[in-house]
Every structure is written in C-alpha cells, then in structure tokens.
Design goal:
By secondary structure, the protein is of the alpha+beta class. The protein has four helices and six strands; from the N terminus they run ααααββββββ. Strands 1-4-5 form a three-stranded antiparallel beta sheet. The chain has a three-stranded mixed beta sheet with strand order 2-6-3, with no helix packed on it. Strand 4 and strand 5 form a beta hairpin. The chain is elongated, with a radius of gyration of 32 Å. The two termini are 53 Å apart.
Length: 192
C-alpha cells in the first residue's frame, strides 16, 4: 500500500471517528435541550443526562487517544520498514564484499599494480554505495575481548600468546550492521 493510500485511509478513519463522536454529542445535547424546555421534568433527569454526556465525552477522549496511538504506531512501523526494506538485498551482497577482499589479497600477492588499482576502485565504489544505504562494518581485530552477544565463535584454538587467552585470535568473516541492527555477526576464532 502506498504512503498516499495510508494517509487517505488514516484521514478517512479519523473523519469517521469524528463523525461518530459528533453524532453522539449532538444526541446528548438534543436530549439535554428537550429536557430543559420541559419545565415539568425533575432535576435528577437533568443530572442523568449530564452524567451521560460526561460518559460520552470520556468515550470520545479514549477513542481519540487510541486512534492517535494507532497513527503513531503505524507511522513508526512504516519508518522501520523503509529503513530495513533493503536488508535482504544488502545481505545478498555481503558475499560479494568478501570476494572483493579475497581478490585484493590475491592480486597483492601477484604484485600487478594496475589490476590492483582497478579492483580496489570497484571495491571502494561498491562499499561506498552500501555504506550510503546504512551498511557499517563491525570493527573486530585480533586481541579484542570475545563477546557472545556480538561475535560468533566458530572454533577455539590454543592461544599462541598468553595475552590472547579468552580473546579473539583471528577474524574469519567480517560482521556488518545495518543501522543499529546486526545483519551478519563476525565469525571469529578464540584462544583458550
């Protein structure tokens, strides 16, 4: 559903609710007016009508507050949907980023400067495009403390140095975030 249709739907729902409330209030006012016109009526009926009017006002206020909450909630959901709509496409592109990294490493070994420049240029352009869409690489390096909330340990090896016990020894696959959400956890090797 388009944003325009959402707005029209919200406006029409709001108008329907307002019309219903106005009808209820008009009926209550008419009842109060007819009661005032007839002087034979007792004061208690007038109080009863005032109480009914207060109840209707209370209903109206609650209904209106509920509708405002609905509008706020759907607006927030729509914004969240727009932020993460591209998530599937970006997740599908992460292996391509990994392939660029592997290609650059292999070209460095071959020492072909011109080929390296071309591949780096394409890689940087691709990374900048994804960064503009909200993708961030998670900074993880050797020696960082392992945190199971943000890292995925794929294996544990004897620590090559004492200071690496319980810490990250190697990063096998980089992790990425889209906005505040982790879309791929970094795969790491920890020392024991």
């Amino acid at each position: 559903m388009s944003e325009k249709e959402h707005k029209e739907e919200n406006i029409s729902e709001e108008e329907v609710i307002k019309d219903q409330v106005e009808d209820i209030l008009d009926e209550a006012i008419e009842k109060a007016d007819t009661q005032e016109d007839s002087k034979d009526e007792e004061v208690s009926e007038k109080e009863t009508l005032k109480n009914e009017l207060e109840k209707e006002k209370d209903k109206f206020l609650r209904l209106f507050a509920e509708f405002e909450n609905y509008k706020r909630r759907t607006s927030k959901e729509r914004v969240e949907l727009f932020k993460t709509a591209s998530q599937d496409v970006i997740v599908a592109m992460l292996p391509v980023l990994d392939d660029f990294d592997r290609a650059i490493n292999e070209i460095n070994k071959a020492k072909d400067k011109e080929l390296l420049k071309g591949v780096e240029l394409i890689s940087n352009k691709f990374r900048e495009t994804l960064r503009a869409k909200g993708l961030e690489q998670m900074e993880v390096k050797e020696g960082d403390t392992f945190d199971s909330e943000i890292h995925e340990a794929i294996t544990q090896i004897p620590a090559p140095k004492d200071k690496l016990k319980g810490k990250i020894v190697d990063v096998v696959e980089k992790g990425y975030k889209l906005g505040d959400r982790i879309i791929r956890y970094p795969k790491v090797v920890t020392g024991k």
